[in-house]
Amino acid sequence: MATNDIKVCEQCKHMRMKTSVAKLKKLAPEADITTVNCKSYCGPCARYAFVFINGRYVKGATEDEAIEKAMTYLKK
User: Cα(23)–Cα(42) distance, rounded to whole angstroms?
Assistant: First the structure.
């Protein structure tokens, strides 16, 4: 099984670290999930929730939508 790399910005106003990391761990227990500092995506970050997954930037209108979209990029 391939290792998935998931990063969540701890300064994103649309993601709650406690809940988002827990949801990601539940959906991808083998993944390497880390929180990162600001990545200078001030435009999108100010408007959307987002997740970095395996090098991709995935956004959604809500935390749950961003996580749902990100799951399509999981390595199997």
Answer: 24
For residue 2, pLDDT over 70 is answered with no
Side-chain half-sphere exposure of 48, counting CA atoms within 13 A: 15
The model's pTM is 0.84
Instruction: Report the alpha-carbon distance of residue 66 to residue 68 in Å, rounded.
Output: 5
List Cβ neighbours of 41 (8 Å cut-off, separation of 6 or more). 9, 50, 57
* Helices (H), ranges, 1-76: 17-27, 42-47, 63-70
